[in-house]
Design brief:
The protein is built from four helices and four strands. It is α/β, with parallel strands linked by helices. It has one domain. A four-stranded parallel sheet has the order 1-4-2-3.
């Protein structure tokens, strides 16, 4: 029952399970009561999103196509997720992946330049089964 890494707002896949948003901000212009029905997320876990400062860096790196800036973002995001509270959440998701279907995601179009690509690796490092 692996964790799926998804783009929030995309159509749900069969047996995807609970969808968790790992983003700093809820979707703009969408009433809270419609987050799940519009395929954004069922539960919000902003503690696994990059800090606001890192999000700004990532967006700048994306726009500029700057590989060095992206690598720096990845390094700093990994550092943020080493904090005990974030590490415990990664452990929890890893344990849940062995019991139930669930997915985590972000809004970014390109996973290769999104924190969810790093989150995918970190979840595996914590023992999660990841699709």
């Amino acid at each position: 029952m692996p964790i799926r890494i998804v783009r929030l707002g995309s159509a749900r896949e069969r047996n995807e399970g609970l969808r968790i948003g790992t983003v700093r901000r809820p979707p703009r212009g969408v009433p809270k009561a419609e987050f799940a029905s519009r395929d954004f997320y069922d539960a919000w876990l902003p503690e696994l999103a990059p800090s606001d400062a890192l999000v700004k860096r990532a967006l700048a790196a994306q726009r500029a196509g700057d590989d060095a800036a992206w690598r720096l973002f990845e390094k700093r995001y990994r550092t943020e997720l080493r904090r005990p509270e974030a590490a415990r959440l990664l452990d929890l998701l890893a344990a849940l992946s062995r019991q139930t279907n669930l997915s985590v995601g972000c809004y970014c179009e390109d996973e290769a330049r999104c924190h969810r690509s790093v989150l995918r690796e970190l979840l595996r490092d914590h023992g999660a089964e990841v699709v």
